[in-house]
Design a protein that fits this description.
The complex is a heterodimer of chains A (581) and B (247). Chain A is an alpha/beta fold and 581 residues long. Chain A contains 15 helices and 21 strands. Chain A has 3 domains: 271 residues, FAD/NAD(P)-binding domain; 117 residues, Flavocytochrome C3, Chain A, domain 1, CATH 3.90.700; 127 residues, Fumarate reductase/succinate dehydrogenase flavoprotein-like, C-terminal domain (Methane Monooxygenase Hydroxylase, Chain G, domain 1). In chain A, strands 1, 2, 6, 7, 8, 9 and 16 form a 7-stranded mixed β-sheet that branches. In chain A, strands 17-15-10-20-21 form a 5-stranded mixed β-sheet. Chain A has a 4-stranded antiparallel β-sheet with strand order 11-14-13-12. In chain A, helix 8 crosses helix 9 and helix 12 runs antiparallel to helix 13. Chain A is globular, with a radius of gyration of 23 Å. Chain B is α+β, with helices and mostly antiparallel strands and 247 residues long. In chain B, the strands form 2 sheets. Chain B has a 5-stranded mixed β-sheet. In chain B, strand 3 and strand 4 form a beta hairpin. In chain B, helix 2 packs parallel to helix 6. Chain B is elongated, with a radius of gyration of 21 Å. Chain B starts with a strand and ends in a 6-residue tail after the last helix. The chains are: A alpha/beta (581), B alpha+beta (247). Chains A and B meet through helix 3, helix 4, helix 9, helix 12 and helix 14 of A and helix 1, helix 2 and helix 3 of B.
C-alpha cells in the first residue's frame, strides 16, 4: 500500500476542514498537510446552509446575550466554557471571512448586516442573502487555493484511522478514481466530516452526510457524545426535504395550520402579536417548533398532501422586492420543487431531520481522548449546542472550532514530532475491504438495509420517542448490523465504485444509528430535541449529563455519562413567547 | 399499470469496456421526480453498478451535472415531466474525459480555477481589529451575480471553444476572476490578468453565449468575459500611453 507521510491530515473539506487547513497553513507554512475528502471541497454540505452565521457585532448586542441565548437554547446541556469561547471568537472569525471576500449582505452604510434568528434575543445573524453556507464554503475553498502547503486529496474516501500505541498516527483512504488504498501517516489528524442526517429517511442533508468520521473515531475507541439529540428543522419542503431557511421567519414569515391559524401561540410561544418579535412564535427555537407541528398533527390540524402532512409558511407579506433581495433561493426552490411562488402563495413545509447535535467527544481545544486525534464541526460535540442547536450557530461553529482544530493539531504535531515505524494497522483496513469484495450470496442489498435503517429511525427515534419505539428500533438495528456484516457488493470493480462507497457509508450509518438509539433509550427525560412521551419533564437530578456511547463491536454500545460544564448560568426554565427576556 | 419512463444511460467502465455504450432502464414516472431521482431508483432497485456524482438534491452543490437529451443540466433540477413520452438520454458532461459511467474527470477545471487566483487580493491590507471593509449594497451588486457560480461545469460542456481548445480557461473560472476583479475590496486585477488576459484566457472566447444560456444560477459568464475583454483593452491602452501607471 502506498504510504503518504504528512505532518497533519485533515479528513473532510467542508467549512470546518477548510478552515482548519488554512489555520495550519498560516500557523506554519513549512508543515505538510493532506486535506482528504470524499468529494471535491465545493460539494461539501456546508454549501446548503442558508440563513446565516451568528456573531455579536452590533452595539445593541452583547457577548453575554449570545451566551445566554445559546445555553438556554441548548436546554442547559451545553458546556458553558465552550459556549463562552465560542461567542467570544465568532465575531472575529466571521470578520476573517469578510476579509477573505465573503459577500456578506450589507447595510446602506457598508457595514455587515444582521438578521433575527430563532431563539436569539437580538438580531445577530450575519447573512449572504439566503445562500450563506454556499458563500462561506466557496470563500474558504477559493481562499485555500492561496496556500501552497495545502495538498488536497479530492475524492479519497477515508475508511479507518490508524492507531498505534494509543496514538492516532494517520488515516487509510481509498482513492476513488483508481480504487487503490493509500495510508496517510500523520503526526496529527483532524476529523471534519460533518453530520449523519442520512441515517433518517427525510432530511435536509445531502447524500454525503453519512457520519463517516463519527464512525471512524467511534470504532477507534473515541466515545460519541449526546447522540440522542438530533434536530428536526421545522420547515422542509415535503417530498424532497429541501430546507427552507429560518431566515424566512426571521424576515417576518409566519406558520399557519389548515385553518390559517398561527398555531404556535398554543405552545407557549405566543401571543402572536406584535410580530416579528424575537424569541417568540415563529422565532422560537427549532425543537419547540417541530414539536408543535407534531401536536398539531395529532389534533388533525395539519394539511394532508401526497408527500405527508404539512403546515403553511407564509412570506407573502414581505413582498416581491424583499423576497428577491433577502430570500432569492427560497423563491427559487419553492418554485422548482413544489411549484409554489412564495410571492403569491404559501409554501407547504414540514419538520425534517437537519442536524446532529451530538458527535465525537472533544474537549474545548477540539482534542479527543485519542492522542493525536482532533475533531470539529458537525461531526464533533464540544459541546456548544447542548440538547438543541440555535439556528445560525453552526456556521459560526465550523469556523471557530475548525480554526481551533487546525491550531491544536499543529501544536500536537510539533510536540510529538516522531512517529514510530509503521505497524500493520493499515493492512487491517485493507483486509477488511478484501473481505467485503469477496462476499457472495444472500438476499440482502445495501439499499435494502439502508431503507430498513431509515424507516426504523423515523418510526422509533423521531420528534417524540417512547420506550416501546426505541426498544423496537434498537432491536431492528442490531439485526441490520448483523446482516450488514454479510451483505455482498454488486459491483466489484475498482474505478469510482459507488456501490462500494455506499456499502461503507451504510456501515458507518448503522454504527452511528445504534449510538443514537441506545443513548435515546437510556435518557429517561425530555430535554431539547430529545422528547420521551413517558418522561415529559426535564430531569436535572439524573440527566444533567452528557451521554457517551462507546463502541463494542457487534454488541450495542455501552453508555456512560460525564458532567456538563456549568460556569455562570444555572439551569432554569426555558422561556419563549411573551415571557421571554 | 402505473406510468413508467425509460432512461438510456451511458455506461463506461474503463477496466472492462473498450468504449462507452448505452444501457436502458425503465423506472416509475412521477410528476415530482427529477432525473436524479430516476437514477437513484436505478441504483437502489435495478442496477447497483451505475455510478454518478450527486449530493444536495437542491441545485447548489454542483455535483450532478450531466448531458440530458444532449443539453447540459443539473440532474437534480431536470424534471421527468419535461421529458414525458420519450426516452431520456443521459450522458456525462461533454468536453471532459469520462472517468466512469456519468462521472467525468474534472482535474482540468480544478487547475484552471486555481490559475485565475479566485480569492481576494486586498486593495489595502488591514488587520481584523480594524473591522470590516465597508462595502455598500450597490458595490456588492456590481459583482454579486458572479459570486453565484456553483462550479457545476455545465458551461464547460456547452462552450464550443472548450471543446476545440483544451487550454481555454473557460467560462466559470473567468467569471470568478471577474467576480474578484469587480469586488470593491480587491486590488488583484493585474495579477489575475496574466492568466485571464492571456491567449488561453478571455481572447479564446468567441462570444457564442452558450455558457450563459445553460447556467443554472444565472451567472452569465459570457457577460463577465465581454466585460473583462473591454476592461483589458482599456488597461492595455492605458499601459501603452502611460506604462505601468494604472497598476
Amino acid at each position: 500500500m502506498e504510504v503518504i507521510e504528512t505532518d497533519i491530515a485533515i479528513v473532510g473539506a467542508g467549512g470546518a476542514g477548510l478552515r482548519a487547513a488554512i489555520a495550519v497553513a498560516e500557523a506554519d507554512p513549512s508543515l505538510t498537510l493532506a486535506l482528504i475528502s470524499k468529494v471535491y471541497p465545493m460539494r461539501s454540505h456546508t454549501v446548503a446552509a442558508e440563513g446565516g452565521a451568528a456573531g455579536v457585532i452590533k452595539d445593541n448586542d452583547s457577548l453575554d446575550n449570545h451566551f445566554h441565548d445559546t445555553v438556554s437554547g441548548g436546554d442547559w446541556l451545553c458546556d458553558q466554557d465552550a459556549v463562552e469561547l465560542f461567542v467570544n471568537t465568532a465575531p472575529s472569525e466571521l470578520l476573517q471571512l469578510e476579509h477573505w471576500g465573503c459577500p456578506w449582505s450589507r447595510e446602506p452604510n457598508g457595514k455587515v448586516a444582521v438578521r433575527p434568528f430563532g431563539g436569539m434575543k437580538i438580531e445577530r445573524t450575519w447573512y449572504a442573502a439566503d445562500k450563506t453556507g454556499f458563500h462561506i464554503l466557496h470563500t474558504l475553498f477559493q481562499t485555500s487555493l492561496k496556500y501552497p502547503s495545502i495538498r488536497r486529496f479530492d475524492e479519497y474516501y477515508s475508511t479507518d484511522l490508524i492507531v498505534e500505541d494509543g496514538r492516532c498516527t494517520g488515516v487509510v483512504a481509498i482513492e476513488m478514481r483508481s480504487g487503490r488504498m493509500v495510508a496517510f501517516r500523520a503526526k496529527a489528524v483532524v476529523i471534519a466530516t460533518g453530520g449523519a442526517g442520512r441515517i433518517f429517511p427525510f432530511t435536509t442533508n445531502g447524500a454525503i452526510k453519512t457520519g463517516d468520521g463519527m464512525a471512524m473515531a467511534y470504532r477507534a475507541g473515541v466515545p460519541l457524545k449526546d447522540m440522542e439529540f438530533v434536530q428536526y428543522h421545522p420547515t422542509g419542503l415535503p417530498g424532497t426535504g429541501i430546507l427552507i431557511t429560518e431566515g424566512s421567519r426571521g424576515e417576518g414569515g409566519i406558520l399557519v395550520n389548515k385553518d390559517g391559524y398561527r398555531y404556535l401561540q398554543d405552545y407557549n410561544l405566543g401571543p402572536p402579536d406584535p410580530w416579528p418579535r424575537k424569541k417568540a412564535m415563529e422565532l422560537g427555537p427549532r425543537d419547540r417548533l417541530s414539536q408543535a407541528f407534531w401536536h398539531e398533527q395529532q389534533k388533525g390540524r395539519t394539511i394532508k398532501t401526497p408527500q405527508g402532512d404539512v403546515v403553511h409558511l407564509d412570506i407573502r407579506q414581505l413582498g416581491e422586492k424583499k423576497i428577491n433581495e433577502r430570500l432569492p433561493m427560497v423563491r427559487e426552490l419553492a418554485l422548482a420543487y413544489v411549484g409554489v411562488d412564495p410571492v403569491h402563495a404559501m409554501i407547504p413545509v414540514r419538520p425534517v431531520i437537519h442536524y446532529t447535535m451530538g458527535g465525537i467527544h472533544t474537549d474545548i481545544d477540539t482534542a479527543t481522548r485519542l492522542p493525536g486525534l482532533f475533531a470539529a464541526g458537525e461531526c464533533a460535540c464540544v459541546s456548544i449546542n447542548g440538547a438543541n442547536r440555535l439556528g445560525s450557530n453552526s456556521l459560526a461553529e465550523i469556523v471557530v472550532f475548525g480554526a481551533r482544530a487546525g491550531r491544536s493539531a499543529v501544536a500536537f504535531a510539533k510536540a510529538n514530532p516522531t512517529l514510530d515505524p509503521a505497524g500493520n494497522a493499515a493492512e487491517a483496513a485493507q483486509a477488511r475491504l478484501r473481505e467485503l469484495f469477496a462476499r457472495e450470496g444472500g438476499n440482502d442489498t445495501v439499499s435494502g438495509l439502508r431503507k430498513a435503517m431509515n424507516d426504523t429511525m423515523e418510526s422509533g427515534a423521531g420528534i417524540y420517542r417512547s420506550e416501546d419505539t426505541l426498544l423496537a428500533t434498537c432491536g431492528i438495528l442490531a439485526d441490520l448490523r448483523a446482516r450488514y456484516r454479510k451483505v455482498p457488493l454488486t459491483d466489484r470493480s475498482n474505478v469510482f465504485n459507488t456501490d462500494l462507497i455506499q456499502a461503507l457509508e451504510l456501515g458507518c450509518m448503522l454504527d452511528v444509528a445504534s449510538a443514537m438509539a441506545q443513548s435515546a433509550l437510556l435518557r429517561k427525560e425530555s430535554r431539547g430535541s430529545h422528547q420521551r412521551l413517558e418522561y415529559p419533564g426535564r430531569d436535572d437530578a439524573n440527566y444533567l449529563k452528557h451521554s457517551l456511547a462507546s463502541y463494542r463491536g457487534s454488541e450495542p454500545p455501552s453508555i456512560s455519562y460525564c458532567d456538563v460544564v456549568i460556569t455562570r448560568s444555572q439551569p432554569a426554565e426555558r422561556v419563549y413567547g411573551g415571557a421571554a427576556t | 399499470m402505473s406510468e413508467t419512463i425509460t432512461l438510456e444511460v451511458l455506461r463506461y467502465l474503463p477496466e472492462t469496456d473498450s468504449e462507452p455504450h448505452f444501457q436502458r432502464y425503465t423506472v416509475p414516472y412521477k410528476d415530482e421526480w427529477v432525473v436524479l431521482d430516476a437514477l437513484n431508483h436505478i441504483k437502489d432497485h435495478l442496477d447497483a453498478t451505475l455510478s454518478y456524482r450527486w449530493s444536495c438534491h437542491m441545485a447548489v452543490c454542483g455535483s450532478c451535472g450531466m448531458m440530458i437529451d444532449g443539453e447540459p443540466k443539473l440532474s437534480c433540477h431536470a424534471f421527468l415531466r419535461d421529458y414525458r413520452g420519450g426516452v431520456i438520454r443521459v450522458e456525462p458532461l461533454d468536453h471532459f474525459p469520462i472517468e466512469r459511467d456519468l462521472v467525468i474527470v474534472m482535474d482540468s477545471f480544478m487547475n484552471k480555477l486555481s490559475s485565475v487566483k479566485p480569492y481576494l487580493i486586498p486593495r489595502e491590507e488591514k488587520p481584523l481589529s480594524a473591522g470590516e471593509y465597508l462595502q455598500t449594497p450597490a458595490e456588492l451588486r456590481v459583482f454579486d451575480q458572479y459570486t453565484q457560480c456553483i462550479n457545476c461545469l455545465l458551461c464547460y460542456a456547452a462552450c464550443p471553444q472548450v471543446g476545440l481548445t483544451e487550454d481555454f480557461v473557460g467560462p466559470a473560472a473567468l467569471a470568478l476572476a471577474h467576480r474578484y476583479n469587480l469586488d470593491s475590496r480587491d486590488g488583484g486585477k493585474a495579477e489575475r490578468a496574466e492568466v485571464v488576459a492571456s491567449n488561453e484566457g478571455i481572447w479564446e472566447c468567441t462570444f457564442v453565449g452558450a455558457c450563459s444560456q445553460v447556467c443554472p444560477k444565472q451567472v452569465d459568464p459570457a457577460a463577465a468575459i465581454q466585460q473583462t475583454k473591454l476592461s483589458s483593452s482599456v488597461d492595455w491602452l492605458k499601459d501603452m500611453l502611460t506604462p505601468g501607471a494604472h497598476k
